[in-house]
Specification:
It comes from Klebsiella aerogenes. The chain is 86% helix and 0% strand. The chain is an all-alpha fold and 90 residues long. It folds into two domains: 53 residues; 36 residues.
Length: 90
């Protein structure tokens, strides 16, 4: 149990760091003059602030982030269908 708990913590720590780095590289595409580590710090501060302020604020943030994902998926489905049926010229 003790070792499993530490390995679980280590796994999520590495996964979170990898996610911050990936987000930094994604943002560097649009803002090439800003270093990757800056974006990592920005996203880390946002996640930390969401967790520190209150549970309600964290839940509200998660709701809106999830809503953005759902709307994006629906938009891609609609745009893909429009492209398949010829409504969007390629």
């Amino acid at each position: 149990g003790y070792t499993v708990a530490w390995l679980y913590w280590l796994t999520w720590t590495v996964a979170l760091g990898s996610s911050f780095t990936a987000a930094g590289f994604c943002m560097q595409y649009w803002f090439p003059q800003v270093p990757v580590w800056t974006w990592c710090v920005v996203f880390c501060v946002v996640i930390f602030a969401l967790n520190v302020i209150s549970r309600r604020f964290f839940a509200e943030g998660e709701f809106w982030f999830s809503l953005v994902k759902v709307i994006t998926i629906i938009a891609f489905i609609i745009l893909g269908g429009a492209a398949i049926f010829g409504f969007i010229p390629m």
